[in-house]
Amino acid sequence: MRKVLYVLLITFTMSTHINASEYDMFIGVEDGLSWADFNGPTGKYQNHEITTYGVKAGVVNDKTRMYISYQYIDAFEDSTTREGEYQTATINSEAFTEPIDVFNIFDLYFFVGGHAGAIKINVDAAFGKSDEYGFLYGVQAGLLAKLGSVISLETGYRLSRSNFSDQNTDLNKFQVVYGGINFRF
After folding, report:
1. In terms of Cα–Cα distance, which of 25, 26, 56 is closest to 158?
2. Is this structure's pTM higher than 0.85?
3. Distance CA 147, CA 93 (A)
4. Which of 66, 124, 159, 173 is at 20 to 30 A from 36, Cα to Cα?
């Protein structure tokens, strides 16, 4: 996992130096719900409505943003027989539409983008323990409301696919619906 994170960090750092003067830095936090669809030896099953927390940091201007994000997902928060978590680290790139002025109060942007990175799944259950990594990639879209020059609120949807496979179980699809706040400086 460390090697993957180092590669992601180096790639992100190199991409931000291209025209760094055109971008501002930003940090953000998010909270939401996620769904994980698996194909296993006994068929398909889903972990649904799992609480998801995330942080992100990167660069932004009025047309694009690039950032590194980390998400923590408590995989079995309602289960008494299993414990586990998902963790993701991704590089993200998004493009914004032209802003829509909403009653001279805030600017509203639509965004669409993609992400790639790593997922770690840690499970402790009656059938055994698993602590495995996989590659994660996908797309995201949403709305961002820019409230002044520093604060923005966003809501979005993220769809990911993965090559994760362990104990004859494959992660087919990983979805997140989230809301967040960002601080631009």
Report:
1. 56
2. no
3. 21
4. 66
